[in-house]
């Protein structure tokens, strides 16, 4: 089911993947370089409803409008904030999440919106090759239970670069999009299954 939600930045879309007996909603925003078709978002939408988690893939207004460049962070945050009531409509706790730029939006806004927790997929800890330009404060400032799932070869921040104490699940050989090389000892489907399994296990402890 797809729902169109008006925001100050234009219409957003929520692609709902409902669980039969849902106890949580996991809202996932996309990155700045792609949309909700990202492999990790699609894998979670397919796997989590069986674990009692309704997945809401959120398409930001700039993508809905067919634009190729994401707007400023404050515009992304404003749109996410405006559509939050629609995510709460099922009457369940909502976990804020996203991949890359979407993870940053979730971290910046989750506490203020009353989210139950934060899921950060491929958190862009720094621009590639520029570790001195850290965004760790966004991640640590979320103020809620937070899980980071990060590709072991992510140029935006490898797992070992994250602050100590970060609850982090590495995806072996994964890049920023969780793609793994064909020569790796872990296949693509296996890597995604590890990702969805780790998220399902973590979510099982949220809201209990």
From TrEMBL:
InterPro entries: AB_hydrolase_fold (IPR029058), KANL3/Tex30_Abhydrolase (IPR046879), NSL3/Tex30 (IPR026555). SUPFAM superfamilies: alpha/beta-Hydrolases (SSF53474). It comes from the Bacteria. It holds the Pfam family Abhydrolase_11. GO terms for molecular function: hydrolase activity. The keyword tRNA-binding does not apply. Keywords: Hydrolase. Residues 25-203 form the KANL3/Tex30 alpha/beta hydrolase-like domain. This is Alpha/beta family hydrolase.
């Amino acid at each position: 089911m797809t729902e169109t939600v008006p925001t100050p930045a234009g219409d957003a879309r929520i692609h709902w993947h409902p669980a039969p007996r849902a106890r949580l909603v996991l809202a996932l925003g996309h990155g700045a370089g792609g949309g909700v078709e990202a492999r990790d978002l699609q894998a979670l939408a397919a796997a989590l409803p069986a674990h009692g988690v309704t997945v809401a893939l959120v398409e930001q207004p700039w993508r809905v409008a067919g634009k190729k460049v994401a707007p400023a962070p404050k515009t992304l945050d404003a749109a996410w904030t405006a559509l939050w009531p629609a995510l709460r409509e099922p009457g369940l706790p909502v976990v804020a999440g996203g991949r890359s730029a979407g993870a940053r939006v979730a971290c910046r806004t989750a506490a203020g919106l009353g989210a139950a927790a934060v899921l950060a997929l491929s958190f862009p800890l720094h621009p590639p090759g520029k570790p001195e330009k850290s965004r760790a404060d966004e991640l640590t400032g979320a103020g809620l239970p937070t899980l980071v799932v990060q590709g072991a070869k992510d140029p935006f921040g490898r797992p070992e670069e994250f602050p100590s104490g970060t609850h982090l699940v590495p995806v072996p050989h994964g890049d920023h999009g969780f793609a793994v090389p064909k020569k790796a000892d872990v296949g693509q489907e296996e890597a995604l299954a590890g990702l969805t399994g780790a998220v399902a296990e973590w979510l099982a402890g949220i809201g209990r």
